[in-house]
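Worked example (supplementary).
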Amino acid sequence: MKRGYLAEVMLVLGAVLTTAAFLMTFFWAPPSVYPDGRVDFAQKIFYFHVPVAEASFLVFFFTAFYGVRFLMTKRKEFDVKARIATEVTLFFVLLTMATGILWTRVEWNVWWQWEPRLTTYFIMTLLVIGYFVLRNSVEDEERRATYAAAFGILAFIDAPISFFITRVVQSTHPVVFKSGGLEPPMLVTFIVGQIGMLMLGYAFYQLRLKEEELKERLEALKIGLGG
Amino acid sequence: MQDIYSQVIPQAPYVIWAYALIWVSLLGFVAMVFARLRRLDKQMQVLEEALKRREQQA
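After joint prediction of all chains, the assembly is encoded as:
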């Protein structure tokens, strides 16, 4: 009851903030310009592409976190939490890839480039998909949960690598906060969108968790009726 | 002004696609989860009532 209520509050707040960020993006944040003075309209994608990507990293952390907790306790609830966190991660990862590809097409004139950030994020996408492939390939519940927990922990190592790689290795992918290069209205718009997206991520995770709990209770009731 | 439009319009479809994808996906995700939650709630009610009836009969 409490979980569902909090999730719905976060969902509404997240929806309000992301809608505000959307409006601020197009009606308040000044357009970015290229060095030659031309308007860089595609930069508007940044205001949602980055929050979605950051959300994917953060939610993926919970896959590893609950993976560790599962391996320590062998409690099923941690396996369920890790799986749901990975589901939400997959959702954000796919959105990041799709919006990133659209931005790349405009800015770099190609749909894809094997540069460090894109490559490491692509590896993360494959790892997240691989997590579900692994889960579906093991029938025994206990073994499935153990393998998935170990895989989730190892897969998460790629997230900080992908996040920090543009700061360490020469990359064509922009590093927005390296030199504090955002004007205040741009920064505020970005922060509003980021907080909103994280709230949505939290709400999605909690709502999915509520659904799983309902399913389990339903199964228990069915068994109770059948027995 | 015409100059600005000529710079913005070629990039506009990609920006529109990006935002459309994000909004449709977010709304789709929420709609799907709520639809499943509603269905599960209904099933739960039916089963709980069945269980109650059985307990009364026993």
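Two points are worth noting when inspecting this output. Residues 3-224 of chain A form one domain. Residues 184-226 of chain A form the longest helix (43 residues).
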